[in-house]
Each structure stands twice: as C-alpha cells, then as structure tokens.
Amino acid sequence: METLALFLQLAATFFVIGAFTIGGGYAMLSLIQTQVVTAHGWITESAFTDIVAISQMTPGPIGINAATYVGYDVLFQATGLHWLGVAGSAIATLSLILPSFIIVLLIVKFYTRFRGSMLYEGTMGWLRPTVVGLIAAAAVILVIKVSWAGGAPSVAVVKDNFTDWKSWLLLAAAFAAGMWGRVSPILIIIAGAILGLVLY
Of 181, 137, 162, whose CA–CA distance to 30 is shortest? Predict the structure, then answer.
C-alpha cells in the first residue's frame, strides 16, 4: 500500500511539473528540485546534483532524463527492488510528458486561429522573461540553498557540491569556457569529467 501511494505521489508530482513548466528541460529543473528535494524529501541536494550531471551527459532532454533518474531512485530507495525502480522511472517520465502531449495537441488545433492575435503576442511577451528566470533558478539552486527557518531567509552554499577551492575553480573555468570561450558544452563536460578524475 505504501508503494502504491508513492507511485501515485510520484505521478501527481511530475504531472504538475509537466503541466506548469514553460521553456524546456532547464526551466523544469528548479521545479523538480523544489518538489523532490524540498517538498517531499525523496532525495538529497547532492544526489539531485548528481542526477542533473548524469541527465546532462546522457542523450535526450535534460528534464525528461532527470525525471527518469529521480523516479528510479525514489522507488529503488524505498523498496530496494530494481524492477520497481524501473517502474518508477516509467511513471515519472510518462507523467511528465503527458501534459505537454495534451497541450501540443490543443495548440495544433487552435494555433492557426490565434496566431498574430494580441492575446497570443501578449501571452508570449510575458512567458519569455519567465523562462529566462526559471533557467537561471535552475543554476542557482545547484550553488546555494535558501532556508526560511525563523522567518528570515538565510543563504548558504551547498557544501556537498562545492567541497573545496578546486570545485570553485572548475565552476569558474567551465563558466568562462562556455560564456566567453564559446566552447561546446560536450567538450566542457568531457573536460570536467577528466579533471574530476585527476583532481579527486
């Protein structure tokens, strides 16, 4: 019964995430982190960071990959059974993409009718900066953790993700290479993996 309840919670959580995410996988990460780490406490901050790193390296959209890994991890940690972990992956992934599937079908039906209208242009004008904010939030939550205990916010670095000065140096190098060096993200990931093996 507890396993069934966990399946239902997982399905409902990822359905809501899929329904309210605008802007793709990176925008989705902040919502996933809020739900699975903060709200439900299914996984830790460091485990979520590992999931994001693996999701980035594996083929496919990062948001869907993250949902797949989270679904497996949650059910496997709760039951210790690999087949239930795989079922958790399937539930999380399908629940995440179902709202988008439904919405796209509706958009295809009505897009030509509303394209160019003031309502459409106004809605897109509000959504574009929101997407940028969600993507920025996805980056920030991997670096800092905000706690509202006691009524006032306190900000702290996620220590599991930045254990020493070498971690900060890798972050700075990756940011500089991507921002100003225009280095391919694939090369940055490969270089980060090699440097991580050498340094740690």
Answer: 137
Q: What is the pTM of this model?
A: 0.67
Q: What spatial distance separates the first Cα and last Cα of the chain, rounded to whole Å?
A: 43
* Structure confidence at residue 69 as a pLDDT band (50, 70, 90): very high
Residue 90 — φ and ψ, nearest 5°? -65, -45
The pair phi, psi for residue 154, each rounded to 5°, is -125, 135
Q: Where are the domains of the chain?
A: 2-155, 163-200
Kindly report, residue by residue over 2-61, the tens digit of the pLDDT. Answer: 888 899 999 999 999 988 877 677 778 888 888 988 888 898 888 888 888 888 888 888
Q: Partners of 145 in the beta sheet? A: 156
**Are residues 41 and 10 in contact, defined by beta-carbon separation less than 8 angstroms?**
no
Six token digits for residue 52 = 């994001």
Whether the CB-CB separation of 74 and 6 falls below 8 Å is answered with yes
**Minimal CA–CA distance to 13: which of 111, 96, 108, 106?**
96
Please give the structure tokens belonging to residue 141: 């939550």
